């Protein structure tokens, strides 16, 4: 009887330990998912701001080229800025779509896969595109601002400084080459993972850390 009592006591203890572990996993998961949701919130806000700026940029470009119909170099600047604004909105929309696709009630592995897709989008598509466009888009923006001043007198900057566009385009190409050079130097120095982490953003890195902590606890590590 004493041996049977000991077996029952051990079984009861095992059950209680299993229940306690399940409760701990549930508490950690809930707190971790709450931390994950809060951590990704700034990314949502940032994309919302980007959509607002993208809309403003797009409308500015449309307003400019429609106000200068028939003047090819001015229309080109306005259309380039309009396209840049559209890309800002489209890229932010894509990221918000990926964020919305995260089901916080899903298994941790599935959430990690979703987050990996989001990271890949930011690192492999979003960051390179905006890094290259950012090195060039300021050129038509500057030309548009210059032309707005000349519009007050009904004149075209081209009549007074035809060299300005070429000079700024050359500066833009230099900016682009510097971006590419910086990327190659960082890659050669072995800091590509550091660069990719910065492209992914702090919110994504914190979310990945929170998921890893939950996964390790669930696996008993």
Descriptive overview:
With 221 residues, this protein is mostly helical. It has one domain. The protein is 86% helix and 0% strand. It contains seven helices and no strands. It has helices at residues 2-67, 72-100, 108-136, 138-151, 163-188, 192-200, 202-218. The radius of gyration is 27 Å and the shape is elongated. The relative contact order is 0.11. The mean pLDDT is 86.
Labels describing this entry:
221 residues, mainly alpha
Mean pLDDT: 86
SSE topology string: HHHHHHH
Measured as a percent range, the helix fraction is over 70%
Low confidence ranges: none
Number of domains: 1
Q: Radius of gyration from the CA trace?
A: 27 Å
- Summarize the main sheet: none
| N- to C-terminal distance | 38 Å
Shape: elongated
Counting helices, strands and paired strands, the structural category is mainly alpha
Query: How many runs of DSSP E, i.e. beta strands?
Result: 0
Helix count equals: 7
Strand content: under 5%
């Amino acid at each position: 009887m004493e041996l049977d009592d000991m077996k029952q006591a051990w079984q009861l203890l095992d059950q209680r330990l299993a229940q306690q572990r399940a409760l701990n996993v549930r508490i950690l998961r809930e707190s971790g998912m709450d931390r994950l949701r809060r951590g990704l919130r700034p990314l949502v806000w940032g994309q919302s701001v980007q959509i607002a700026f993208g809309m403003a940029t797009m409308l500015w470009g449309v307003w400019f080229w429609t106000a200068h119909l028939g003047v090819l170099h001015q229309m080109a600047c306005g259309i380039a800025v309009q396209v840049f604004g559209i890309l800002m909105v489209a890229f932010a929309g894509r990221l918000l779509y990926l964020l919305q696709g995260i089901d916080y009630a899903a298994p941790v592995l599935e959430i990690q896969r979703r987050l990996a897709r989001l990271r890949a989008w930011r690192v492999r598509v979003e960051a390179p595109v905006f890094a290259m466009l950012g090195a060039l888009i300021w050129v038509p923006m500057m030309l548009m601002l210059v032309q707005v001043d000349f519009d007050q007198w009904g004149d075209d900057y081209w009549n007074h400084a035809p060299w300005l566009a070429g000079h700024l385009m050359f500066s833009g190409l230099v900016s682009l080459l510097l971006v590419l050079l910086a990327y190659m130097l960082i890659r050669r120095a072995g800091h590509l993972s550091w660069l990719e982490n910065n492209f992914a953003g702090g919110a994504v890195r914190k979310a990945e850390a929170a998921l890893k902590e939950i996964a390790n606890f669930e696996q008993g590590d």
